[in-house]
């Protein structure tokens, strides 16, 4: 029985789950669900009508963090969450940080304004983007820079913490923004190294193709 992932690949929360599935080598089926235009009945998968949702047999789950932790418990191979209680909690901390502190700026401002507005035929709010890039994100990047241990955030190896943070940075890159190397060398290198992993490269290539198609560029 394969899990079924509901969502759209350009969502960073769906991306987090896709990356986890790919890095763990879990086969799954996908069902395209476009946010804000969810089909009737989608509430049975996610009552908030957000993406992602996931089903495994009779089980239905919503929210990327809940899904990621469920998948980790159900498919323990290629562990992406440490067993040690403290490291596990650190991993959860960075995942939460990415989902709730970075996302408002990387995704819900930069990506939404530069990409989603364009798709809707609207002008991006460049003032809001400027504020996100120059005021809101720098303190978060300073914090993340101070927390990096080598190439990883937790346990000196790849974990869900890295996946969650990089998922937000990918949305930021899709929006045409980067983490400048001069200001945040460790964070910039972390992101470069993360993208070089084969499973990540494949997903990123497919996302870029989708973006080109959507934007007609
Ligand atoms: N905390 C949630 C966030 C999910 C989320 O906000 N998804 C967005 C797309 S990136 C969505 O579905 N938005 C539609 C809506 O809020 O109605 C998670 O991690 O799954």
Automatic annotation (TrEMBL):
Residues 84-217 form the GST C-terminal domain. Pfam families: GST_C_3, GST_N_3. GO terms for molecular function: glutathione transferase activity; maleylacetoacetate isomerase activity. It comes from the Bacteria. Residues 1-79 form the GST N-terminal domain. Signal peptide: none annotated. Keywords: Transferase. GO terms for biological process: glutathione metabolic process; L-phenylalanine catabolic process. This is Glutathione S-transferase. It comes from Neptunomonas antarctica.
